[in-house]
């Protein structure tokens, strides 16, 4: 079939709709208007005056539905209510802009994921195709706005009919690649389409003065944008015409930029004489690629004029204008952004250079009525004829737009001439509404009486027929108003019944009645007025405006009252309540207004518009209003929500939260609602009354019954209510508090457990019994989630008020009496608990049980103190003698989580879909570790966000599994891109020889994992209680034997992988990684997996760069005498680094050498050790669960014998081996054959670009040309390996260019390493990666002073005692204890052969230097030939050697004169 052509855009669009869709709905306009699409001839077209409902009804069965809209204003109000049900469906809405004014169509922009705009007929055809495919593939609503044309000479090239459906249904041709781009592998890089896949995805066609923008890397909306881009390329391939989201026209360095949304063509010819003016035309309105848009606004631009083809907009600022304002807000200097309108095209001349020149002359920052092009000829619908105070017209104009001439503002100022000032009082208006509604009821009764009289109806058959229809449709605004227009001419008052109807005729139409209350109106609504309105049940809508800026909220009591009005109304029951903010979500305002109007009863809408800046001399600017609104909404001060109790009757959730954060009051309200729902579930006999009743009496009965039942529920409990509040950082206090709560419940108490700060301080006095449980943080400070409460207590004390009289309390504190060893610091021990106990008494509270203190140093840890305290609580509450019939609920542990996870599934898949939070469920957070993912949050801004009422800035760490740390250049490039597009732009080379991404937000998780797998890497078992990434020495890459070792490490890693298919299901949509078949059966691990993490390393003497003894299992390679082939391994077992500060049951340990095995036996031995640990490891206490403790508990010989029994053979005697270092060798090395290697120094493994150090870029450039491999070292550095001889010059050139060849560092720096710690690691107690380089700067100077610049000293730092950077085998190490404070350790072996020991329990940066200076000096002066620093500190008497893990604490604190007691 050949291509066809159409003569109108509506015909072309309608044709595509008919060909592509399962169902086409043509929205019928109000009479006498006709649909534009009447000529479309297709069986699947259905006409509807309620198109939204039609689409929703057919949604389940339709592959693709299309709605054709000729008059958006008529359809908009109804459509908005149905959009939530449609926005994630395959629905295309083609909106024809009949009157040239985009205002109505653009109102949909904020409701649907995709909005396309076509300015020409050809574009309308092409985008209709694109929209249909996009919607079908993505299962998302797409709005396509276009202009209908009526030109017979129009010639639109159309696609053949038989190609449409195959195109719509074809599988994705341009899958999103790992860099997020739809890559043009099929020949799109050509001049035909004008889109060139250049280096950065842009093509600047300077010959034509045009730059087309193909978006790349947009972080926001990137997934939607990627999907759009992919489908646009598919469309391009079909129609051979480019569809660009944004098109730039003009010079490369303009000073003025016109942003165009409309039909007007402002081309290069028009702009050429102006020289410094450019224009951006927008065709993809949602998702608007703001970051890319910003990137395409040249830095030379100092003025932006946003021109939109709209006659007027309800709010002062249009959404597009605000998008541009916020996009450029951080640019320095910030361009002026000016808003203007663009007239429709009315003649062939179009926009001329002179028109633009005139516009530019008028365009100054305060410009009003800036306009380009012809005038709008369309008659504007008269807005509500009211004088509304200035800025508040934002809301009243929306009302006018939505409800048109049905809108009645009952207290509008235009009534003052008739009724006087009182007319604007909401109370007065309410009375008027009630009178009007009564009169309408009277009209209904009169009409019914008329219709029941056969004599009269037969006399007036036409009128009777219309009145019958009206009775049925009187509450439907569209139908009743249409009928009214037909009824009124037929009415006469010459007949008694008709006369009565005639006198009431103004009530035939269905009005939308609104009352407005605000500070700026004559009168605000008082509390009694609100109560009156709500209690009356009148069907009227109350719009309450709040103009108080967020930053001035404290000084305005009114604001608080407004917010309370919403809660008050919700508590009352049958009232529709919404809280909206026009400059936060315009779409939500529309939705709330439409729903309020539909609600049959009182509606209260709280509307935010921060304008009242008392000291401002001029009206608030757009940015100021935007910022205040954003602050208010993001902080939860002004949450956006809708509460529609009518939904309950339909079995739907009445509450919709439209913003992210709500504050405690609203949460409490919803909690109460949950209680009611709970009651209904527990007492089904109530359900019909509670849910199904409609009558007023029944509703009353419902409330009463629910309250009675709830009270009865509480009263049925034996004991008094007990509130347990806890403050906890590490989880110990939380666990204890929850345990107390659980035990309280078994004693019949009504118990609630929550954090200090989630409970309002003001409500403490209302609680009869509160048990406080708090741990100790930092330097005796309260934990994070208790600090606000402590502040409030201190504030109350400073006022001298006894505000807590009536409260009975008891406090239990957790601390560590040895954490602060210096006598002057002893008072930090359990300080929050002790302070709280004393201060509550000062505030008049009465202690019901004495302060309890738990000490980590006790035999049972804090349990020792707790066991004494808890009975006091039960005694005081009179439940100490209660017989406990139920078993105490068992605390949920990781073991429960693992077994309940169904082979590592948990509810991760569901959690990924939950957009209400950036986090996953806590239990899923444990399971994702097995998938290589840790949930973290940005701790730098945790407090700040908390103060703003926001949840932490959650981001995830993703760790790749990459045995031996070897990857290809292509994989390096993929990792680089993933970090750029999904993470925080940097990535880390870790101490376990792999890549780590940080700051990956939840919605980027799945695409990131998929991108990693596309690069033929994965993240399976990179963390979790399984065998983790297997390490392999990097440096011996020079030897043949290393190849065999690496093969062993890789094979072993794969043999010990979990076999669950969960990973593939959740992250890869069941696709298998590189063809590996996996089953839901764990032959190695079983359903519980291991008790704890399990680490393996393979070392190649004499290099111990993997720190083989620090691993659970180590394989020390033994080569044949020519060092050509691997004979086997000496096996070590029982190493491990993790410790808990001051918990002497925990200690670091080095692996013991078990003996020699062959390579084949080594696999069996690894499995045997793993399963022995699986079956014998401690699953009760995770702190004591590592293999090292299992071996010490079982005894080395018993453990070894069990391993041999499982393996079926015995270890041979260990073979001799020698290690000489565990650091890396930097610079060039010649390998075997033609291969060369260069080791790059990457400080602490962080790959990033910094000023003057573009390492990330440099390595990317190297990866683009490198022909060998990359090898990550366990010291977090990088070997560019296997460089062929002839490639050396090119690599050298790049190394030099990016300063990657700089190795001019001190021996100390080259031998150092640090873990990540702040800001991402949730366990960090102190800085590490960010602080060690600073510390080294200083220590380095000391070394230089004493001539030790080139001496290697292994110095390591970690942010907590978990020991990720293996600090316990360093010669000198620092382990974070609290911000700025570290445990200092000395005496480790230079090549990882000996543990170090605690030298000082707590040192600051200053103290570190004071300690090290004399020590380094002595080392320089007194060291023996070749003596290492760690050995020297022992020989010189600073520290005792550590001979085994169990003796690690012995003689800690230094020797002799250097000793400080740490006990
Ligand atoms: S050592 Fe502690 S702070 Fe550092 S990365 Fe590991 S867990 Fe985090």
Helix-strand blueprint:
Elements: E1 4-6, H1 9-20, E2 23-27, E3 45-48, H2 51-58, E4 65-69, H3 72-86, E5 91-96, H4 103-106, E6 114-117, H5 121-138, E7 142-146, E8 156-158, H6 161-169, E9 203-205, E10 210-213, H7 222-239, E11 246-249, E12 256-261, H8 268-271, E13 277-282, E14 284-286, H9 290-296, E15 303-308, H10 319-328, E16 336-342, H11 353-362, E17 371-372, H12 393-403, E18 407-409, H13 416-419, H14 426-452, H15 454-459, H16 461-473, H17 477-487, H18 496-503, E19 512-518, H19 527-536, E20 541-546, H20 557-572, E21 576-581, H21 586-598, E22 603-608, H22 622-634, E23 641-643, H23 646-649, E24 655-657, H24 664-682, H25 687-692, H26 696-715, E25 721-727, H27 732-746, E26 750-755, E27 769-774, H28 787-799, E28 808-815, H29 831-842, E29 846-847, E30 852-855, H30 863-876, H31 894-900, H32 908-913, H33 922-927, E31 933-937, H34 942-947, E32 954-959, E33 966-967, H35 969-982, E34 987-989, E35 995-1000, H36 1002-1014, E36 1031-1032, H37 1040-1055, H38 1062-1068, E37 1096-1099, E38 1113-1119, E39 1126-1133, E40 1152-1158, H39 1159-1176, H40 1187-1194, ...
Parallel strand pairs: 2-3, 2-4, 4-5, 5-7, 6-7, 12-13, 12-15, 15-16, 16-17, 18-19, 19-20, 20-22, 21-22, 25-26, 25-27, 27-28, 28-29, 28-30, 36-37, 37-38, 48-49, 49-50
Antiparallel strand pairs: 1-8, 6-14, 9-10, 10-11, 11-13, 21-23, 23-24, 31-32, 32-35, 33-46, 34-35, 34-43, 38-39, 39-40, 41-42, 42-47, 44-45, 46-47, 50-51, 51-52
Helix pairs in contact: 1-5, 2-3, 3-21, 5-6, 5-7, 9-10, 14-16, 14-18, 16-17, 28-29, 35-36, 35-42, 39-41, 40-41, 42-43, 45-46
């Amino acid at each position: 079939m050949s291509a066809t052509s159409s003569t109108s855009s509506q015909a072309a669009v309608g044709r595509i709709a008919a060909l592509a869709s399962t169902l086409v709905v043509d929205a019928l306009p109000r009479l006498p208007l006709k649909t534009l699409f009447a000529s479309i001839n297709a069986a699947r077209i259905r006409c509807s005056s309620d198109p939204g409902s039609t689409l929703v009804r057919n949604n389940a069965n339709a592959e693709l539905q299309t709605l054709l809209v000729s008059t958006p204003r008529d359809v908009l109000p109804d459509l908005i209510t149905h959009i939530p049900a449609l926005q994630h469906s395959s629905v295309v809405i083609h909106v024809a802009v009949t009157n040239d004014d985009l205002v109505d169509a653009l109102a949909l922009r904020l409701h649907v994921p995709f909005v396309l705009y076509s300015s020409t007929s050809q574009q309308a055809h092409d985008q209709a195709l694109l929209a249909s495919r996009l919607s079908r593939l993505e299962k998302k609503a797409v709005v396509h706005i276009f202009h209908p044309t009526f030109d017979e000479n129009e010639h639109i090239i159309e696609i053949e009919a038989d190609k449409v459906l195959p195109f719509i249904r074809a599988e994705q041709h341009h899958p999103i690649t790992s860099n997020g781009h739809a890559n043009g592998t099929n020949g799109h890089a050509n001049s035909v389409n004008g889109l060139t896949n250049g280096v950065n995805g842009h093509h600047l066609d300077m010959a034509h003065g045009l730059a087309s923008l193909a978006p790349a890397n947009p972080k926001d909306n990137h997934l939607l944008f990627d999907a759009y881009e992919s489908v646009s390329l598919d469309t391009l391939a079909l129609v051979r015409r480019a569809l660009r989201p944004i098109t730039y026209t003009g010079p490369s360095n303009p000073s003025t930029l016109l942003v165009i949304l409309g039909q007007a063509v402002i081309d290069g010819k028009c702009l050429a004489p102006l020289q410094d003016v450019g224009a951006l035309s927008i065709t993809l309105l949602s998702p608007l690629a703001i970051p890319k848009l910003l990137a395409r606004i040249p830095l030379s631009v100092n003025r932006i004029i946003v021109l939109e083809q709209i006659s007027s907009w309800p709010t002062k600022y249009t959404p597009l204008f605000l998008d541009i304002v916020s996009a450029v807000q951080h640019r320095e200097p910030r361009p002026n952004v000016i808003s203007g309108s663009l007239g429709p095209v009315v003649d062939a001349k179009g926009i001329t250079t002179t028109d633009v020149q005139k516009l530019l002359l008028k365009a100054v920052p305060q410009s009003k009525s800036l306009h380009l092009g012809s005038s709008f000829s369309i008659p504007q619908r008269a807005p509500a004829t009211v004088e509304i105070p200035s800025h508040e017209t934002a809301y009243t104009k929306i009302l006018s737009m939505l409800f048109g001439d049905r809108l009645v503002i009952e207290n509008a100022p235009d009534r003052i001439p008739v009724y006087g000032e009182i007319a604007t009082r909401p109370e007065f208006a309410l009375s008027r509404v009630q009178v009007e509604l009564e009169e309408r009821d009277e009209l209904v009764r009169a009409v019914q009486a008329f219709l029941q009289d056969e004599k009269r109806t037969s006399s007036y058959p036409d009128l009777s027929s219309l009145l019958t229809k009206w009775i049925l449709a009187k509450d439907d605004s569209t139908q009743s108003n249409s009928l009214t227009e037909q009824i009124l001419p037929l009415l006469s008052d010459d007949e008694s019944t008709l006369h009565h109807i005639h006198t009431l005729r103004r009530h035939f139409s269905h009005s939308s009645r609104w009352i407005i209350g605000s500070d700026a109106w004559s009168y605000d609504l008082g509390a009694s007025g609100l109560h009156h309105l709500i209690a009356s049940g009148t069907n009227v809508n109350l719009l309450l405006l709040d103009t108080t800026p967020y930053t001035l909220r404290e000084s305005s009591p009114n604001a608080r009252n407004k917010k309370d009005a919403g809660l008050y109304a919700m508590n009352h029951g049958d009232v529709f309540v919404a809280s909206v903010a026009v400059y936060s979500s315009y779409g939500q305002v529309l939705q709330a207004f439409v729903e309020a109007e539909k609600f049959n009863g009182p509606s209260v809408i709280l509307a935010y518009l921060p304008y009242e800046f008392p000291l401002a001399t001029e009206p608030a600017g757009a940015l100021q209003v935007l910022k205040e609104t954003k602050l208010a909404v993001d902080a939860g001060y002004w949450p956006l929500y809708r509460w529609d109790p009518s939904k309950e009757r339909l079995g739907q959730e009445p509450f919709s939260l439209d913003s992210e954060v709500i504050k405690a009051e609203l949460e409490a309200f919803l909690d109460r609602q949950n209680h009611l729902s709970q009651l209904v579930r527990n007492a089904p006999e109530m359900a019909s009354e509670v849910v199904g009743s409609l009558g007023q009496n029944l509703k009353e009965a419902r409330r009463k019954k629910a309250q009675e039942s709830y009270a009865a529920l509480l009263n049925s409990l034996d004991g008094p209510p007990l509130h347990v509040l806890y403050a906890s950082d590490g989880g110990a206090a939380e666990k204890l508090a929850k345990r107390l709560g659980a035990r309280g419940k078994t004693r019949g108490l009504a118990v609630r457990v929550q954090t200090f700060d989630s409970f309002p301080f003001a409500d403490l006095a209302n609680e009869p019994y509160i048990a406080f449980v708090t741990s100790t943080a930092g330097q005796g400070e309260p934990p994070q989630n208790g600090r606000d409460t402590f502040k409030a207590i201190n504030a109350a004390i400073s006022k001298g008020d006894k505000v807590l009289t009536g409260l009975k309390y008891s406090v239990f504190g957790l601390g560590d009496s040895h954490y602060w060893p210096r006598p002057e610091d002893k008072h930090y021990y359990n300080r929050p608990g002790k302070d709280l106990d004393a201060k509550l008494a000062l505030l008049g509270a009465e202690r019901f049980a004495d302060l309890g203190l738990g000490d980590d140093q006790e035999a049972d840890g804090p349990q020792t103190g707790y066991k004494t305290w808890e009975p006091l609580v039960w005694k005081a509450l009179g439940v100490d003698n209660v017989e406990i019939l139920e078993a105490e609920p068992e605390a949920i542990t990781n073991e429960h989580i693992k077994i309940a996870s169904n082979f590592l599934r948990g509810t991760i898949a569901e959690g990924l879909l939950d957009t209400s939070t950036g986090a996953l469920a806590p239990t899923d957070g444990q399971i994702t570790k097995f998938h290589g993912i840790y949930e973290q949050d940005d701790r730098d801004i945790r407090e700040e966000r908390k103060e703003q009422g926001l949840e932490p800035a959650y981001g995830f760490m993703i760790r790749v599994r990459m045995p031996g740390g070897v990857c290809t250049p292509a994989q390096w490039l993929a990792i680089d891109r993933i970090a750029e597009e999904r993470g925080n732009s940097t990535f880390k080379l870790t101490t376990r020889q792999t890549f780590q991404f940080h700051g990956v937000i939840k919605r980027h998780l799945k695409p990131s994992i998929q991108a990693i797998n596309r690069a033929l890497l994965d993240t399976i078992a990179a963390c979790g209680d399984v065998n983790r990434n297997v390490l392999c020495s990097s440096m011996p890459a020079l030897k043949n034997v290393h190849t065999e070792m690496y093969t062993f490490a890789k094979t072993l890693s794969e043999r010990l992988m979990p076999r669950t298919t969960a990973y593939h299901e959740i992250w890869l949509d069941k696709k298998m990684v590189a063809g590996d078949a996996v089953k839901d059966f764990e032959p190695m691990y079983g359903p519980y997996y291991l008790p704890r993490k399990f680490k393996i390393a393979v070392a190649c003497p004499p290099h111990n760069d993997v720190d083989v003894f620090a691993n659970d299992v180590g394989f020390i390679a033994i080569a044949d005498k020519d060092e050509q082939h691997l004979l086997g391994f000496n096996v070590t077992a029982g190493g491990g680094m993790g410790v808990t500060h001051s918990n002497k049951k925990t200690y670091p340990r080095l692996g013991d050498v078990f003996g020699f095995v062959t390579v084949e036996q080594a696999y069996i031995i690894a499995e045997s050790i793993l399963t022995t640990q699986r079956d014998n490891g401690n699953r009760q206490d995770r702190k004591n669960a590592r293999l090292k403790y299992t071996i010490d508990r079982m005894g080395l010989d018993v453990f070894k014998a069990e391993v041999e029994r499982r393996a079926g053979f015995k270890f041979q005697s260990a073979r001799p081996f020698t290690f000489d270092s565990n650091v890396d060798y930097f610079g060039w090395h010649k390998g075997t054959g033609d291969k060369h290697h260069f080791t790059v120094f990457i400080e602490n493994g962080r790959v990033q670009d910094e000023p003057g150090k573009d390492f990330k870029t440099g390595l990317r450039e190297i990866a683009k040309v490198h022909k060998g491999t990359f090898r990550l070292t366990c010291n977090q550095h990088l070997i560019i390996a296997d460089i062929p001889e002839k490639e050396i010059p090119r690599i050298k050139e790049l190394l030099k260019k990016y300063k990657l060849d700089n190795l001019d560092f001190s021996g100390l720096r080259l031998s150092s390493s640090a873990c990540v710690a702040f800001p991402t690691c949730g366990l960090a107690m102190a800085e590490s990666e960010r602080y060690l380089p600073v510390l080294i700067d200083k220590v380095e100077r000391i070394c230089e002073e004493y001539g030790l610049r080139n001496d290697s000293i292994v110095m390591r730092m970690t942010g907590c005692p978990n020991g990720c950077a293996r600090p316990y085998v360093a010669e000198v190490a620092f382990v974070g204890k609290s911000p700025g404070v570290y445990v200092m350790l000395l005496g480790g072996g230079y090549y990882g052969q000996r543990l170090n020991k605690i030298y000082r329990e707590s040192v600051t940066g200053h103290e570190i230097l004071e300690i090290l200076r004399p020590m380094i000096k002595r080392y320089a002066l007194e060291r023996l030939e070749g003596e290492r620093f760690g050995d020297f500190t022992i020989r010189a008497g600073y520290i005792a050697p550590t001979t085994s893990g169990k003796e690690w604490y012995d003689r800690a604190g230094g020797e002799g004169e250097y000793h400080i007691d740490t006990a």
